[in-house]
Amino acid sequence: MRKIPFGKSASGLIALASLTLMGCHEKKPSTDLHCGNNIKITQREGQIADDIYKQAFYRNENVDLATLSSVRVEGDSLVYSGPLLYQSLVKIDALYNKNPHIQRVKINSPGGVTVLGLCLGEFIYENNLDVEVTGKVFSSAANYVFTAGNKKIIHKDSVIGFHGGEASTRVNDMDASDGASAQDNTPQTDDIFSTAKTWEAQFYQKLGIDLRLVTAGQEDKYASKDKTVIGWTYTLDAFKALGVNNFVLPDGEWSVNTRYSDKESLFVIDTHDLVSSSR
Predict the structure, then answer these.
(1) Whose CB among 71, 79, 139, 169 lies 3.0–4.6 Å from 91's, allowing a Cys bridge?
(2) In terms of residue numbers, what domain contains 129?
(3) CATH number of the structural domain spanning residue 130
(4) What is the DSSP pairing of strand 39-41 with strand 70-74?
(5) Among 225, 58, 80, which Cα is nearest to 140's?
């Protein structure tokens, strides 16, 4: 099976995470994460991913990542809240195997390391699960988890935000005061960047989604010095034009919510913007 190489160089956060793991002499049973499509993330790679998140946002080795995300079964749904973390995805896999009646993933997440978003997206796609946005999905949670759903269930005030992806021609420069927009831009090696970029392209091709989904908002015409604007969203028609379909609106409408937080917002891209950009 294809493995997702989280890095072989000794630089930046990857090196720090790798050295931390090398110092752990106690052997524990391996818990590899099988994403789907014959792709897996090894336990060591997953631990490195979680360490990347910890270093990028907390800079504290004592942070208990288990307190940041929660996963539970609720009726026919897996309910996920918090950043995308390897240890939480392992829980999803275990809960799904014990509850074969699961039909939906309810999610409220600011995103996380790219390959974890892709892994959960592959899992959702392979098992033909619906995705319901119970609050917000941003970054890799929007890029790969939301888009993978068979049905995409969004409430009137659901937030669906993007700020870039592996197909981006430059590192996203939309800084958020709480670090949300940096979730997929933590230092990574060329190996993982190259692998993730190819994986992303193949994933979107399989779903029939235009790669512009994760790049359109980075065009020069959208450049803004307003640091409170951390990304973008789309109208339903624009989503459909990009290949994101099969929406379900329990409230009968979606307000195209641009309010990410009290101090942060998104801008909106519609079909007219997409057409003008393609000329």
Answers:
(1) 71
(2) 2-278
(3) 3.90.226.10
(4) unpaired
(5) 80
- pTM of the predicted model, to two decimals? 0.82
Categorize the per-residue pLDDT at 21 as very low, low, confident or very high, splitting at 50, 70 and 90.
Answer: very low
Please write the tens of the pLDDT for every residue from 210-248: 999 999 999 888 888 788 999 999 999 999 999 999 999
User: Which residue in 249, 80, 247 sits closest to 152, CA to CA?
Assistant: 247
pLDDT tens for 84-131 read: 999 999 999 999 999 999 999 999 999 999 999 999 999 999 999 999
pLDDT of residue 97: 94
Coil, helix or strand for 171?
coil
Residue written as token pair 């949300």? 180
Q: Looking at the 3D structure of the chain, how many domains does it have?
A: 1
pLDDT of residue 212: 94
What φ, ψ does residue 106 adopt, rounded to 5°? -95, 125
Question: Burial code of 148-162, b = ≥16 C-beta within 10 A, e = fewer?
Answer: bbeebbbbeebbbbb
Q: Per DSSP, what are the bridge partners of residue 266?
A: 231
Task: Name the residue among 251, 256, 255, 261 with its Cα closest to residue 227.
Answer: 261
- Give the Cα separation of 240 and 237 in Å (integer): 5
Interval 47-57: pLDDT, tens: 888 888 888 88
List the structure tokens of 80: 């996920």
Buried b / exposed e along 41-69 (16+ C-beta atoms within 10 A)? bbbbbbbbbbbbbbbbbeeeeeeebeebb
